Write a sequence for this structure.
């Protein structure tokens, strides 16, 4: 049975990802219930599982209403701020989505929040607010050391993974990336492509992990070229990958 992964738009710029086989469905980070329920009803899908990456309201607020409608299992990180019934999962846990014939692995990625987790297999990465196309999440709770470790873990995953981020931030991330590297042709080309997609109200996601590894500045904190640019922009000496990431994240926060 063939599998489909589709974005359901929520709020201003969130995507609730749905994995389905035309019969049963799994939702990732349903921040609001109505658009998810509409999609399930319209496509005649039975919800079997929900995957949560972190506790922020725009990722979990739809869960209670969905639980009232479907007897489904919710997987989420262990965090006292997640109060609905769920199976807490941790590093290296395997989640068997048996109706879809899919197994996903859990990787802990603290940085955006302390208990943030990602889900992946050999084809997909659901990374919540840890990684965005050409950017990364804001560092609300973690330290630069933790965030760099988390991004480093994602960099170790296979190039061919498709990356399903939760927000449509690609164009604004590209504006920042191009402020660092204004003559980077591949970035300029990508900006054109994404601008066209957005004009047609198409999502820019998912993105390819290999593409992010080679172009996203927030995955290139360890390269001499980005370290040189950040040291110039932040007018400081960069002594480590963590230093580079911390200054880059700060520059983006005030961009
Ligand atoms: Zn968040």
């Amino acid at each position: 049975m063939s599998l489909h992964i589709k974005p359901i738009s929520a709020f201003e710029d969130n995507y609730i990802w749905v994995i389905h086989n035309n019969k049963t469905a799994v939702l990732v980070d349903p921040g609001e219930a109505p658009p998810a329920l509409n999609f399930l009803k319209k496509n005649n899908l039975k919800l079997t599982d929900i995957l949560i990456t972190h506790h922020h309201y725009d990722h979990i607020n739809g869960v209670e209403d969905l639980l009232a409608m479907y007897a489904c299992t919710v997987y989420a990180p262990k965090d006292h701020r997640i109060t609905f019934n769920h199976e807490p999962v941790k590093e290296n846990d395997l989640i068997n989505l048996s109706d879809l014939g899919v197994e996903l692995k859990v990787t802990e990625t603290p940085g955006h929040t302390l208990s943030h987790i990602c889900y992946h297999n050999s084809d997909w990465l659901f990374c919540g607010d840890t990684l965005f196309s050409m950017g990364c999440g804001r560092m609300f709770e973690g330290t630069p050391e933790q965030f760099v470790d988390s991004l480093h873990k994602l960099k170790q995953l296979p190039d061919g993974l498709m990356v399903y981020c939760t927000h449509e931030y690609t164009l604004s991330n590209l504006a920042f990336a191009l402020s660092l590297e204004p003559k980077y042709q591949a970035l300029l080309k990508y900006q054109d492509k994404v601008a066209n997609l957005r004009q047609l109200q198409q999502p820019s996601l998912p993105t390819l992990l290999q593409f992010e590894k080679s172009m996203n500045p927030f995955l290139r904190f360890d390269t001499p070229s980005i370290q040189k640019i950040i040291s110039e922009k932040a007018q400081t000496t960069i002594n480590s990958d963590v230093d580079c990431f911390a200054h880059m994240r700060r520059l983006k926060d005030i961009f």
Observations:
- Residues 29 and 161 are 19 Å apart (CA to CA).
- The mean pLDDT is 97.
